[in-house]
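[Target chain]
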Amino acid sequence: MAVAPSAHASPIVFSYTGGNLGQGTLGNNIVETNSGETVTATAWSVTGSGDTTFQTGALGQYSGLGLGDCNQDELAVGCSAPQHEVDDNGQDDFVLFTFSTPVTSVTITIDPVCDCDTNASYYVGKGLNPLGDTLAQLGTVTNSNQISPDVTRSITLSGLGTGVTSILFGASTSGTDNYFKIESLSVTEGATAPEPATFGLAGAALIGLGVIRRKSRRAGAR
C-alpha cells in the first residue's frame, strides 16, 4: 500500500507585529513555532571594509511594526529610527529565516513605516550561512521592486522549487532609500516523502504476500 506524502495544505502564518523586544543585540535570534513548523530569524548586513562582506546584526522586534535590523556600523553611532529598520542606507540589511521543514511557498509582508521606498532583494536555498561572504558569493539574487512607493506590500518569493530551508530577505542590493520592517511570513511546507525504510518494509510485505499465495495454489493443486 502506498504511503501518502504529508504536508500542511494551508499556509502557516508567522506574525512579528505582536512582540516588543526592542533593538536586540548582535547575533541574537527570534524563534517562532506554528503548526509544527519552526522558523528562526537572525539579522545580517553587508558591512566592513568597503562594505563587501556579511556580518551579524542586531535583530529588533517592534510592537505593531515587525522586525528590523541594526547593523554594526549603525550600532557604533547609536541605532534609532529609521536606521533600526531593514534598510540599504550605507549598508544592505537582511533578515535570515531558517525553517525546520522545507517550504515551497513563501509570502513576506513588509511595511515602510516611514515615508520610504520598499524595494527588496532576497536569496533562497538550503542551509544558507552568509557570515564572511560577499553578495556575489551567495549566488543568485532576486530583486522585487515596488509597484507603488511608501505602502505596505506582500511579496511572494520565487525560485523555491521543491523546497528550501533558508531565505535571506532584505533591502535592495541595487538601490538606496529603501526602509521597511518585516510584518509577517506566510509559508506552505513541501511534501514529506516516505523514509527509505518505509519502502523496504512495504516491499518485504508484498514479497511475503506473494509467497503465501503461491503456497496456497500449490496446496490446492495436490
Residues 192-222 form one domain. The helical segments are 72-77, 196-221.
